[in-house]
Design goal:
By secondary structure, the protein is of the alpha+beta class. Helix content is 40%, strand content 19%. A 6-stranded parallel sheet has the order 3-2-1-12-13-7, sandwiched between helices. A hairpin with a 4-residue loop joins strand 4 and strand 5. The termini are far apart. The structure holds ligand ME8.
């Protein structure tokens, strides 16, 4: 099976932001997923460089148009590799093969009589670079740009789009999968209930010279859509390249809803006029918003992908964008949400599972994949869940439901973390008679990790590569070959690398990453509460009053992460929920293994003045009972939410 996957080609009137990155990450993740599934993929992105918006932007920047487009196009191209996005072609509409293809197609469609010359007066929105109908206006304004369109009257060339209206309706109705999600197909069909007007495809050179000259009239240049959309054909070598038909038959376009009409209406009718089949699928996503408004270059409320990548790494950014947005719907972007996902999903859930499992393999079975015994029901349950997850993951990824695909994977990660608590391998390790049971438990964990790793290749390529290396997997991953239980060979060396996702201090990270001038809204970054009033003097020797006792704030805290403090034998760094997340450094390393602590509810002193221990800011103290050389943590006798007050 082959697939030809495209993103929009982005206008070079401003540098890329997270919205552009999202479409391109989706295309990259799907490409990787399909390749993992043994399919052949051609993935194309690029830049759209003609038109008066771009001439205007160059004039504003006071540079030549050529210099301007080269510069911004390079910014787009340079943004993708740090995000681990690897297109097969980065196309520019100023590329010579594209100019030749556009001219060839124009001549063909003109010769067959589907392009004609006429006078036209219409309402034109410069932001959209489109004429709008009265019906499309909201309160007289373009709904996307919130500006009134201007009446423009001039002689131009037109594409006979109306001729193909009924064919298009029939095509969309008989191929319901061609526009997804469904709401966008319905939107297009609703639009097609009104008569379709012909499409203006030229601009006189008196008004615009920065475009592709019409081959049959050099007083005009092509106007944007007849130029831009054709990039999808140029990229795969229309019409003569050997693989053209194979890829065109499997063409899938990814766009946001802003350019639904050109893609769902202009493009298939243009293709029909050329005698080509319509694209196979159009995948339409929603907007990334900042607050209530769309992130857009004209509004300037943008987040730059390169800055985010530098701070958080490609995998965190890719994971966040794919996990946070339901494909098709709008989503809100915030650094707080990104940092929260990084800390909870990546550091706590995935990072902990990997480090706990591998540490136990290293400490308890000599750092090699152990030979398992028969699976007990608990092991079988995890194995079944991991295999079922793979099935769901495949189905969701195929359907562009990235969020749900990742939810399914994280459900298994959560299960595996709970499995560790339930099987308590550190207890098994104490008893040589239970060595086979220990081996089975650790093998089950490693197998689960292997299947989780398989699913992460398309989403977080670097993390998946590190996890594969840790598990001793050297072959190129293959979903069909590897998607079965029990393939890790006993005896394979397991290597424990560095933590995959060190936790971020929410406050510091948000401040460092916040765009200049943007208020920092991290909840954890709020100013500390006012200092408590000084304690009243001690009433009697050795006794405190109730008021004194009340000065100490005791709370239930759930330990969600634990790790050894480097170069400090006695200290463990704990991350607890109480109910907000905080770090506590506790002198309990001689008594507890980090992996034993996850999920335990303990009692902490919540209002202890923070102090630095080995460079780590400890925000509280865990209560423990000590007798001789024994130490046990204080816990609660029943299920109660973290943060509950102890009094
Ligand atoms: O329209 N949320 O280019 P463009 C999600 N050149 N995606 C967003 C977004 C947001 N807030 N903002 C932009 C053009 N995008 C034409 C396309 S194609 C033949 C020609 C993404 O630079 C999304 O993919 O305005 C959207 O469709 C595209 O950028 C628009 O890019």
């Amino acid at each position: 099976m082959s697939l030809y996957l495209t993103t929009p080609i982005f206008y070079v009137n401003a540098p890329p932001h997270i919205g552009h990155a999202y479409s391109t990450i989706v295309a990259d993740a799907v490409s990787r997923f399909k390749r993992l599934n043994g399919e052949k993929v051609f993935f194309q992105t690029g830049t759209d460089e003609h038109g008066d918006k771009i001439v205007q932007a160059a004039a504003d920047a006071d540079v030549s148009v050529r210099e301007y487009v080269d510069n911004i196009s390079r910014m787009f191209r340079d943004t993708w590799p740090p995000l681990a996005i690897e297109p097969d072609r980065f196309i520019r509409t100023t590329d010579s093969d594209h100019i030749a293809t556009v001219q060839r197609i124009l001549q063909q469609v003109y010769d067959q009589g589907d392009i004609y010359f006429a006078e036209y007066t219409g309402l034109y929105c410069k932001g959209c670079e489109q004429f709008l109908t009265e019906k499309e206006l909201v309160n007289g304004l373009c709904p996307d740009h919130q500006k009134p369109p201007v009446a423009v009257s001039e002689q131009n060339y037109f594409f006979r789009m109306s001729k193909y209206q009924q064919w298009l309706i029939d095509h969309i109705t008989s191929h319901p999968e061609c526009i997804t999600p469904e709401r966008y197909r319905n939107e297009v069909l609703a639009f097609l209930r009104e008569p379709l007007e012909d499409l203006c495809i030229s601009r006189p050179t008196s008004r615009l010279t920065w475009g592709i000259p019409l081959p049959f009239d050099d007083r005009f240049v092509t106007y944007v859509w007849f130029d831009a959309l054709i990039n999808y054909l140029t990229g795969i070598g229309y019409p003569d390249a050997p693989h053209f038909s194979e890829y065109w038959g499997a063409a899938e376009h990814i766009i946001a809803k802003d350019i639904l009409k050109p893609h769902a209406i202009y493009w298939p009718t243009m293709l029909r006029a050329m005698g080509l089949a319509p694209f196979h699928r159009l995948h339409v996503h929603g907007y990334w918003n900042m607050g209530e408004t769309k992130m857009s270059k004209s509004l300037g409320n943008v987040v730059r992908p390169l800055e985010l990548t530098e701070q958080f790494g490609a995998d965190t950014v890719r994971y966040f964008l794919l996990r946070e947005m339901s494909f098709g719907l709008d989503a809100g972007f915030s650094l707080e949400a990104l940092i929260a996902r990084r800390n909870s999903d990546l550091a706590n859930d995935l990072g902990n599972l990997v480090s706990r499992s591998l540490t136990m393999v290293k400490n308890f079975v000599g750092g090699k994949v152990p030979a398992p015994g028969p699976l007990a029901p608990l092991d079988q349950e995890l194995a079944d869940a991991a295999l079922a997850m793979l099935g769901e993951y495949r189905q969701r990824m195929t359907g562009f439901a990235f969020r749900q695909a990742l939810e399914a994977v994280w459900e298994v990660i959560g299960r595996a973390n709970r499995y560790i608590v339930a099987t308590a391998p550190w207890e098994l390790a104490k008893d040589p008679a239970r060595a086979t049971r220990l081996a089975t438990v650790l093998h089950t964990l490693l197998e689960t990790l292997r299947l989780v790793t398989l699913t992460l290749h398309p989403i977080m390529p670097a993390t998946a590569a590190k996890m594969s290396a840790a598990l001793g997997l050297t072959a190129v991953p293959d979903l069909n070959r590897d998607g079965r239980w029990g393939l890790l060979a006993p005896g394979t060396a397991i290597t424990l690398g560095e933590a995959l996702f060190p936790r971020l201090d929410a406050k510091g990270a948000a401040q460092a990453a916040a765009p200049k001038g943007q208020p920092n809204k991290t909840p954890a970054a709020k100013a500390p509460a006012a200092a408590p009033a000084p304690a009243p003097p001690i009433a009697e020797e050795g006794l405190i009053t109730f008021d004194h006792f009340q000065q100490t704030e005791l709370r239930v805290a759930e330990i969600i992460a634990a790790q050894k403090v480097p170069k400090a034998d006695r200290l463990l760094q704990l991350t607890v929920k109480a109910p907000e997340e905080r770090t506590i450094v506790a002198g309990i390393a001689e008594f507890y293994q980090p992996e034993q602590l996850i999920g335990k509810k303990v009692i902490i002193v919540a209002n202890l003045k923070p102090a630095k221990l080995k460079g780590i800011l400890s925000q509280g103290m865990v209560l423990a009972a000590k007798a001789g050389d024994r130490l046990v943590l204080s816990t609660v006798d029943g299920d109660i939410p973290p943060g509950s007050k102890v009094a």
